Amino acid sequence: MKIQVRTILLGLLSIGFVQSYAQTFALQVKNDQITYLNDDRGNRILDFSTCGYKSSEQDIPSVRNVVFVPWKAGDNTARIQRAIDYVASLAPDASGFRGAVLLDQGEFSLSGSIRISASGIVLRGTDKEKTILLKKGVDRGALIYMEGMDDLNVQDTLKVFSHYVPVNARTLEVASGVSLKKGDGLPDISRGLEGRAAGVSVQNVSGTFGTAPKIRVRGATSIFGSSKPLWVVDGVIMEDAIDVGPDDLSSGDAETLISSAIAGLNSDDIESFQILKDGSATSIYGARAMAGVIVVTTKKGKAGVSKMSYTGEFTTRMIPSYKEFNIMNSQEQMGIYKEMEQKGWLNNSDTYRAKDSGVYGRMYQLINQYNPVTGQFGLANTPEARNAYLREAEMRNTDWFNTLFSNNVTQNHSVSITSGTEKSSFYASLSAMSDPGWYKQSEVKRYTANLNTTYNIYKNLSINLISPRY
Fold it and tell me: Could you read off the pLDDT of 300-317 as tens digits, one per residue?
């Protein structure tokens, strides 16, 4: 009887433990969607949706096999390790890969761990179900160790005031945020996302100011639909003026200049970025957030703080020089054409009616062009006349860099005023940017104004007024 009672109590304790654990678990699946929740201490499960090679945005490249390890009975730890060390001694290719170690079919017995201490090494099996690595013994270490170089150089640090930093925390209380830059000096805040968040890809398809860049937060989420993230500024969803697809961004169409929802937002007014790329984005903003959400919070006035700030930026761009490029001049180019003519690649019959025939095509057209008024051809079909025409072409050295580009200075100025009391606070800013344009017909001027006021009516009631941004 005592044994049965103990068994029942143990079962009740197990059931209670499982229920308690399920209630505090920080992941919820509802309507076939995963939602990441915070526990009572703020810990949050990491989002691995963008893990993989190149943040799961590119296929794993085909790496050549350098060493083949056949199956052999007994301990194979040293054999596989020697193959990995040999590949590690090779120089990486243009893609950063050194080579692959291919294992034969069979069960490879290991008595120790395998260590990969260099980048660009691929360890693969001949068959995913028939190539097995089996570690034996009492060692609880990992099967494969990925080792890196301890070359971390810590220069500037920040003192964190938070007594506890939760897992996957997105907000930290620091002593001073002077060294934290949130896009200062950037003409377009979308460029400020580059290299600042894992899995976020920003591709500048044009150097023209205001052109919408190609931004991907969760990769290509749809084949036919839009994969652009949703922009939210101070709680307001910012829609693009027009819907522009990825192909339109690289087309050079002028409509792409007005397609960016936040092109006119001054980067000095930005307080923080927040990128949502998991189930919490769709739970808040709906189906439009399936490609991710970029939440932008602008600066606001603070009680007891009054200050005026000015930011000025001057950028100089010089005309490119032909010395910086390995380009042939006209004489060298005509020498190549002459050699091609001697080998029969630029004959009259093939070049005369070609669409892009160059200087030889123009010469053959003049030879066949008859003027009935003068009774002469455009160019005499003699070696002397052809050589004279080609010598003239050798001297056509137009400096296209000097013709298309110009030296200029880009200016970006921003002035902001902030002040506040316990009852009200405000933040106001003005900015002006003038870009004469590096190349012809690319001049851009931008002027912005922003006003953000907050009135604390009661303890639990406040009014926030945000002016439209121009």
Answer: 888 888 889 998 989 888
